Amino acid sequence: QVQLVESGGGLVQAGGSLRLSCAASGSSFSINAMGWYRQAPGKQRELVAAISSSGSTNYADSVKGRFTISRDNAKNTVYLEMNSLKPEDTAVYYCNAFIRFYYYWGQGTQVTVSS
């Protein structure tokens, strides 16, 4: 049973920083792509950033230059460093992992940015 466990969310003032972590466990297969999505109230879930097993990254235009995704393959962990946070970054952030043929999701962690 694959599990993704996120941590690091919280409340921060605009301009502040947070670091999210997501640890994957329970898989006997290598993890391919990993990513972070977010969903704000009343909005659809959207891709924030993704990273391949080789380290290639892509970002939503709204976070480019402010967020950095990275991963530690030895620990099956993906990170999201978020700087210069804005109130519009407020959302539940979900970790995602593509393993073999399936996508797996974490339970989500709340990020709230106050103005």
Describe this structure in words.
The protein has 115 residues and is mainly β. It is built from no helices and eleven strands. Strands 2, 4, 5, 6, 9, 10 and 11 form a seven-stranded mixed β-sheet that branches. A four-stranded antiparallel β-sheet has the order 1-3-8-7, with no helix packed on it. The protein starts with a strand and ends with a strand. 31% of the residues are buried.
Keywords:
single chain, four-stranded antiparallel β-sheet, mainly beta, 115 residues, seven-stranded mixed β-sheet
Order of helices and strands: EEEEEEEEEEE
Could you name the ranges where pLDDT drops below 50 across 5 or more consecutive residues? Answer: none
Shape, per Cα inertia axes: globular
Largest sheet: 7 strands, mixed
Question: What's the helix count?
Answer: 0
Helix-strand category: mainly beta
Percent of residues in helical segments?
under 10%
Distance between the termini: 40 Å
Radius of gyration, in angstroms, nearest whole number: 13 Å
Strand content: over 45%
Q: How many β strands by DSSP?
A: 11
Query: Could you report the average pLDDT, rounded to the nearest whole number?
Result: 96
How do the helices and strands line up, and which of them pair or pack?
Blueprint: E1 3-7, E2 10-13, E3 18-25, E4 31-39, E5 46-51, E6 57-59, E7 67-72, E8 77-82, E9 91-99, E10 102-105, E11 109-114
Parallel strand pairs: 2-11
Antiparallel strand pairs: 1-3, 3-8, 4-5, 4-9, 5-6, 7-8, 9-10, 9-11
